[in-house]
Design a protein that fits this description.
5 helices, 152 residues, alpha/beta, EC 2.7.7.3, five-stranded parallel β-sheet, Rossmann fold, globular
Length: 152
C-alpha cells in the first residue's frame, strides 16, 4: 500500500493545503493528514477545531485519514507505516526549506518526500497570512475551505 503523510499545523487549513491534498490523494492509496502538536507554539485555532476543519473538508474522500502526532515526523511515518511524506511548494524559499528537511528525513529513515507545486492561483496563501487577515477583521473566506469558520 502506498501510504503518504501530509504533516502540518493547519492553523488553519487553507485553500493551498486543500489544493495539495486534493491532488496528492490521487497519487497514493491512502493520505494521512497529520496535525503536529508543538507545546511551544501558540495556535489561533484549537487542535479540535483544526481536526474538524479537515475532517469536514474531506468527509467524502475515503482515502483520507486525519490524525494528530507529537515528535519527529519520520518516527510517526514509521509508526503508521507511511512510505512517503507529501509537501506543497509555493515558492523558491519553500523549496530550499523543504529540501533541507527532506534530506534530513532521508538520512534518518527510508522515507521519500514527494513535492507538489501549489496551483498558481493559490501560491500566495499561507496560514500566517490567513491568521493576519482574521486578526484584523478581514474577509478570510476566499483563502480557506468553507469548513473553516471563525467563532466571533
Amino acid at each position: 500500500m502506498r501510504r503518504a503523510l501530509f504533516p502540518g499545523s493547519f492553523d488553519p487549513l487553507t485553500l493551498g493545503h486543500y489544493d495539495i491534498i486534493k491532488r496528492g490523494v490521487t497519487l497514493f492509496d491512502e493520505l494521512v493528514i497529520a496535525i503536529g502538536i508543538n507545546a511551544d507554539k501558540t495556535y489561533m485555532f484549537s487542535l479540535e477545531e483544526r481536526v474538524k476543519f479537515i475532517e469536514e473538508a474531506f468527509k467524502d474522500e475515503p482515502k483520507i485519514k486525519v490524525t494528530t502526532y507529537k515528535g519527529m515526523t519520520v518516527d510517526f511515518c514509521k509508526k503508521i507505516e507511511a512510505n512517503f511524506i507529501l509537501r506543497g511548494l509555493r515558492n523558491p524559499a519553500d523549496f530550499e526549506f523543504e529540501k533541507a528537511i527532506a534530506h534530513t528525513n532521508r538520512k534518518l529513515s527510508e522515507i521519500e518526500t514527494v513535492f507538489l507545486l501549489t496551483s498558481s492561483g493559490k501560491s500566495y496563501i499561507s496560514s500566517s497570512i490567513v491568521r493576519d487577515v482574521i486578526r484584523n477583521g478581514g474577509d478570510y473566506t476566499g483563502l480557506v475551505p468553507d469548513t473553516v469558520v471563525v467563532k466571533k
